[in-house]
């Protein structure tokens, strides 16, 4: 899975971001020392490698809720350079800076500083990233990634937290890249075989 970054927004958004929110590492010269302390604190078996569940304990949203385990697995897949199924400290540093970039981006679109983005804010973010998505599709994304339920009108809150914002955006990017690889004439329409469809789904989940 591609380690997609909102590069066109991260620098400006990070500069504008306030210090409020979840427990994230500082982006100054002491960052490595701070990260080392946090890494050792969650490396409960002292192996020098973080499992998915150990990494989850290091990651929190702005409302202090833990990261969705599926988002954590996605991050491990991105930064597990040696395919060990775990994250070493050097990999952890890259992963953490990746999260920092996304945090700055998230704050840009979390206009009310609620620690989550609603349907309108998510739509603005995806359009800003260059994805021509409909409000109806965004509503489905909200239903999919709302940690408090899948029914926007009753069980869910109709918004998504930071961890699920990252997962939703990376998912849309990955699917869009797969689609564009087949849409060779760039007319917005494709015709694919059953095998091609399965290949798209499997690669998206890899």
UniProtKB/TrEMBL annotation:
Any one GO cellular component localisation term in the record: cytoplasm
Gene Ontology terms for molecular function: calcium ion binding; calcium-dependent protein binding
Domain of life of the native organism: Eukaryota
SMART domains named in the record: EFh
Compartment annotation: Cytoplasm
Residues annotated as domain EF-hand: 30-65, 97-132
Name of the protein this chain belongs to: EF-hand domain-containing protein
Pfam families: EF-hand_7 (PF13499)
Organism: Absidia repens
Keywords for this protein: Calcium, Cytoplasm, Metal-binding, Repeat
CDD domains: EFh_PEF_Group_I
SUPFAM superfamilies (UniProt xref): EF-hand (SSF47473)
């Amino acid at each position: 899975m591609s380690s997609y970054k909102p590069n066109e927004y991260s620098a400006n958004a990070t500069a504008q971001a306030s210090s409020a929110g979840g427990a994230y590492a500082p982006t100054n010269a002491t960052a490595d020392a701070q990260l080392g302390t946090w890494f050792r604190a969650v490396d409960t078996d002292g192996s020098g490698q973080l499992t998915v569940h150990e990494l989850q304990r290091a990651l929190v949203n702005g409302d202090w809720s833990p990261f969705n385990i599926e988002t954590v697995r996605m991050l491990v897949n991105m930064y597990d350079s040696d395919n060990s199924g775990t994250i070493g400290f050097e990999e952890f540093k890259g992963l953490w800076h990746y999260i920092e970039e996304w945090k700055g981006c998230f704050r840009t679109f979390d206009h009310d500083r609620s620690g989550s983005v609603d349907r309108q804010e998510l739509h603005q973010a995806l359009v800003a990233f260059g994805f021509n998505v409909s409000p109806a599709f965004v509503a489905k994304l909200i239903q999919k990634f709302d940690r408090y339920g899948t029914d926007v009108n009753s069980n869910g809150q109709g918004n998504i937290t930071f961890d699920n914002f990252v997962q939703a955006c990376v998912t849309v990017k990955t699917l869009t890249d797969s689609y564009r690889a087949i849409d060779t004439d760039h007319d917005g329409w494709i015709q694919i075989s059953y095998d091609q469809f399965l290949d798209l789904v499997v690669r998206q989940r890899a």
